[in-house]
Amino acid sequence: MTTRRIGLLGGTFDPIHRGHTDLATAAQAALGLTQVLVIPANVPPHRPKPLTSSFHRFAMTALVVAGRQGWRASDVELRHEAPSYTVTTLRRFQERGYAPHELFFLIGADAFRDIASWRDYPSIFERAHFAVVSRPGHPVSALRDHLPALASRMLDATPGVDVPAKPAIFLIDADTADVSSTALRAALGRGERLDGHVDPRVQQHIEQHGLYRFGSTERRHAL
């Protein structure tokens, strides 16, 4: 029977961009993930409320995963009004029959540096592997020194690395686009295009629906 290796990429995706897809692509290649589920958050606990509706954020996510081998968009967090805590999402997947060693939570090294502030830390590491990918200015090589309490769990995801039965923290050194949703929203607010930073289909969706423009009905907060 084929081993399931399910990558879970969560985020606000407001909008989804190349940094997100580069991260997931690197993790899929390094760890042989059989599936990548991209999961827009409903109410992110560590970030401001999204500017665009869950409908548009899910639509943009669905456009990005279309045609990518093994990728699909998941509404597992959008169907619940409560804050989208990672531990709750992992618990829901386990209730569906996924074992902790089959789940790989994908995250950038910049966000992982603050993992100690997450709900259910450190027991959250018993619920899934964590696949941590370098982000510009945040190499995974620095994480052992920054988070010494977790250093013994960290493994370098080199080609052919063994995946242990007990959940581990995989460090993946890869190039990912230097882009953020915050910067993209600001650019769109100035009337600029996002060529090269987002999937062309996402750019088209944003333009067709007038998202992120000053005065847009989707714009709920100041940038």
Instruction: Give the terminus-to-terminus CA distance.
Output: 49 Å
Helix-and-strand structural type:
alpha/beta
Question: What does the main sheet amount to?
Answer: 7 strands, parallel
* % residues in beta strands: 5-15%
The number of strands is: 7
Radius of gyration: 17 Å
Molecular shape: globular
Describe the model:
- This protein starts with 5 loop residues before the first strand and ends in a 14-residue tail after the last helix.
- Helix content is 28%, strand content 15%.
- The protein is globular, with a radius of gyration of 17 Å.
- The longest helix is centred in the N-terminal third of the chain and has 14 residues.
- It has seven helices and seven strands.
- α2 packs antiparallel against α7.
- The chain has 223 residues and is α/β, with parallel strands linked by helices.
- A seven-stranded parallel sheet has the order 3-2-1-4-5-7-6.
Observed structural traits:
alpha/beta, seven-stranded parallel sheet, 223 residues, globular, disordered C terminus, 28% helix, 7 strands, single chain
Brief description of this entry?
The chain is α/β, with parallel strands linked by helices and 223 residues long. Helices cover 28% and strands 15% of the residues. Strand 2 (35-40), helix 2 and strand 3 (71-73) form a beta-alpha-beta unit.
Note the topology:
Layout: E1 6-11, H1 18-31, E2 35-40, H2 54-65, E3 71-73, H3 86-95, E4 103-108, H4 109-112, E5 129-133, H5 143-146, E6 154-156, E7 169-172, H6 181-189, H7 200-209
Parallel strand pairs: 1-2, 1-4, 2-3, 4-5, 5-7, 6-7
